[in-house]
Amino acid sequence: MQRDFALVLNAGSSSLKFCVYEQSGYEPWELTAKGAIEGIGTSARLRAWTAERKTLVNETAAGLVRDCRDALDVLACWLNSHYRGAHIVGVGHRVVHGGQGFVSPTIITPGVLRELHLLESLAPLHQPYNLAAIEAVAERLPDVRQVACFDTSFHRTQSAVASLIPLPRDICGVGIQRYGFHGLSYEYIASVLPRIAPPLAQGKVIVAHLGSGSSLCAMKNGQSVDNTLGFTALDGLCMGTRPGSLDPGVVLFLFQTLHFDAKQVERILYRESGLMGISGFTSDMRELLASRKDSARLAVDYFVYRAAREVGALSATLGGIDGLVFTAGIGENSAEIRRRICEASAWLGIAVDTAANERSEPRISTSTSRVGVWVIPTDEELMIARHTASLLGLYRGQYGRAS
Q: Residue 329: inside a domain, yes or no?
């Protein structure tokens, strides 16, 4: 019997994350491999594991892996050796910015790709690499349909007021508005709340997606009401190398007084600011927490300060909250950051169970806490897989849980 496979790709500047889903006959789609090719452009390494976390491969990639196209060659070689006789029936991609034109997952055509390239300047850390992966797959598998799943789509339920940027109307008419990002992550959390935390599913919830890129999303009845990210992925919280909210006058000062050009300013805002800019040596929260440097402590303090401040702001937007959910790399793994944000937000009625928090249990709030606090691992790739299968007519069962 033919073995059908669907791929999910999340391409970045130095890594290519992937998932492989398989379906035989009319059995449900199941995750059979998840992994990444990391160190693209330097010393690339291929890692993959099963849904049960059993290692399938962990080795230095053969040959020079200069870019996404080379990384896809490495992945294709491994897939051909590990899944003999595989038939790829669809490829789903994370695409960070959908702009005004793309409000839901979309089958990729040459016209769609041209429109998405026009949005590259709005997400320079992500969009060019997302689209490079799509083009590389099209070159190698021209008959396989591909689907773009957007980080902006989930937030299209926000009101006109929440989406507004108060510039002149004729300027905003070209697509300047607040879009919000990390939507695939928030969509996944909304999808599992009815099972994991039923009381929150229809309640007022703030989800904290904390990682190298960070944001908060205010949700009501499982829909996005507001998000700390806006027109681009520079707004809101302090991030690994991005500053978060910034007085526009600072940018004018960089241009007018320090005489930086556009490329220099883009580099500063996207690659040299945030935790990296404050600490002066790293954007990795684990290294910052372990360091004794004053600049490292200041970076952590500012990260917590901004997160707690935005929790308060979104609580006002919602008119109070029933739950706070932590997810993504820092949110799922740093008990200290969770504790400090919760302590700074105790005025909302949040009380954390110290032992549960240290163990990263699903619920980390005490039984008397007025606000339920949860740690829920996100799964953006699973959302992409679901959208891809549904849009391409491949959906013949329920997906298994991706780990």
A: yes
